[in-house]
Amino acid sequence: PSVSGGRVFLTDSRRTGGNRAIERALALDEQSGKVVWTQEWPADYTGLQLIYAIGPRATPTVDGDRVYVLGAMGRLLALEAATGRIAWQKDFVREFDASIPSWGMAGAPLVDGDRLIALVGGEPDAKVVAFNKHTGEELWRALSSDWEPGYNQPTIITHAGTRQLIIWHPRAISSLDPATGKIYWEVELEEDKGM
Asked: What is the pTM (predicted TM-score) of this model?
């Protein structure tokens, strides 16, 4: 969960039959635990390792009056933090031809200024995509998706006076310019099972 402005934001899911489920985001009152709002969307978990706990894996990202949630099957929603109303949404499979990895989409989206940076795993060259956090418009895309996106959280560091977006994916650790997606450097490093 994420806690901000007196609210607790979290996600869960419930199976509706077979591999189908309803994923949802919830906002709870921090003091009473009462549900303030919910937002639901359908998900089909076909292709996931179903022995693992089912449901969204990414922590909700809260930024001012918005909360960004990512479902296990690549549904990204920008929600109004006060009401849960959908401001905009993306479907990584439908809109970016993404292949969902075995354990689902897990890296929580990262806010950087007016950008929302997400692991998408799309084609072409959309392993990571930056969106306008207000509108959902694509700002840039980077890195080949010839392999799954992995499960690690995008992170921004400053080293030697340069802000760098670090993407640790199953084939390398990549450093990108957070403003443009341009690659600064990469270190090849193949991980077991895409972890």
From this structure: 0.94
